[in-house]
Specification:
Order of helices and strands: EEEEEEEEEEE
Shape: globular
Largest sheet: 7 strands, mixed
Radius of gyration: 13 Å
Strand content: over 45%
Distance between the termini: 40 Å
Helix content: under 10%
Length: 125
């Protein structure tokens, strides 16, 4: 059973930066496409970024393109989300997710079969 544990969330002022980490265990991390999603209060979970199993392809939501960077270290079984120029609208619980079933990466939550518990990111104005 794949387990995902996020860390790195916190409170930051607008314009600041954070780096989220997601450590995986219990599976073959290097074979999984990985994604980051977020959910703000009273809003649906939305796609943020995804990275292919080999790190060779990434995809971003328009709302974070140019500000967020997804990366992975397969030797450490970890995926990262570096966030800069943060805005209050980025406030949400951030979840990492693993897709063990597909070759291409997806931006839809139902394609991911393993999820972490989430880490809170709060951006103050």
């Amino acid at each position: 059973q794949v387990q995902l544990v996020e860390s790195g969330g916190g409170l930051v002022q607008a314009g600041g930066s954070l780096r989220l980490s997601c450590a995986a265990s219990g599976g073959t991390f290097s074979r999984y496409n990985m994604g980051w999603f977020r959910q703000a209060p009273e809003k649906e979970r939305e796609f943020v970024a995804a990275i292919r199993w080999d790190g060779g392809y990434t995809y971003y939501a328009d709302s974070v393109k140019g500000r967020f960077t997804i990366s992975r270290d397969n030797a450490k079984n970890t995926v990262y989300l570096k966030m800069k120029s943060l805005k209050p609208d980025d406030t949400a619980v951030y979840y990492c997710a693993a897709d063990s079933n597909h070759d291409r990466i997806y931006n839809t939550a139902y394609n991911y079969d393993h999820w972490g518990q989430g880490t809170q990111v709060t951006v103050s104005s």
